[in-house]
């Protein structure tokens, strides 16, 4: 009897796993937790692919979301965005090419754009400067309604033929007087050694590059035409470019440069002065730091052994070097076609917590670097984070253009990845960039686009800007007196532009107050 009990017990125990297996086999499987879904509308180039994109797959893995990227051709992006916003069918996050975007206030008032809760977005608060965030406030509302992407700001200065300086035993110029001596030597002392008087000091398209180099030495902003107080006046009043105290002196200097052949006589007709510069007959050209190495390579195709150096523009009479460029924002990564005015806004349709977390995470150092690099083996071979040296094959460069996008490409002023696998060139360009950023005087400057009145004025007076340009060019070549141009400017300031001047000053004050 005891044996039978034990046998029955063994049979039951042996049967338990089978019964348990049979039972659990037919239980309905527990569905995996679904990832939050997010749709993002971006303005990208035609080469970009949103399907089967390994970078997007990596992002979804890193962020734990199901990310759907929607793109519209650049040529029709703004129109498509307007239609989507008006219809109430906008994606969760939209890119706005915003420089005084007049639709944004209306979208905010109608509840189509949600505020960015900065107290829940520590990375945005850390990486995006208060001055950039202030531009995303609407009216008297103290809330921020968009996240400007942060991008590298490259200093503007002057590229000089270093081999000419060495041949003529000239030191690098610092002051305006130094530059005058250098340009005079480039014109009169045959720096290319061909025995002909066929060289010039500086080339320019109209006064663009020339004004970019020399405007700061007169404390005036010619290149960017930005919104800032007049640096040459003690009253600290915002002035339009033609009314700034240093503007007449800059034109007078340009006239002197043209008469002495320091300024390339073709400056009126050139559309791309760098193409003339690389022919080897010009000593100086206004340029950003990152243009130096490429221009040198192109120049050496015509002049073997030529050497270039990037310098700061000349100082003013007190020894200060000015830079009036507004803060850069947007996304200018390797594969991006998004342009420098990229702002990202959360629409009313979004799962707000997911959208805010996405924008915040994309402003971390790690995600900015990922959006610059992509996936190793697919988008790059190697990256040295200590020297910011990135190595890519041609096939990987093509993959970058197809796959990568980002929200910002700079973390707290740090450019996390640069293109190119030449360590010497990268370190040279980084030296120039730091040199420019460390030694310049930056007044608080905004793009004129942030004053909607200037946009409206240009639309209602389309010929005004061209007439002003033509007037100053006539002064430079001697067909119009400087006094007559000043008289014209004074008349316009009392007439058509009187209201514009008041509006611009009020807007600047408003932008400053928004930062507080």
UniProtKB/TrEMBL annotation:
Report whether RNA-binding shows up as a keyword of the record. Answer: no
Specify the superkingdom. Answer: Bacteria
The alphabetized UniProt keywords are: Cell membrane, Lipoprotein, Membrane, Palmitate, Signal
Q: Coiled coil where?
A: none
Its recorded name reads: Extracellular solute-binding protein
Q: Which organism is it from?
A: Paenibacillus piri
Taxonomic classification? Bacteria, Bacillati, Bacillota, Bacilli, Bacillales
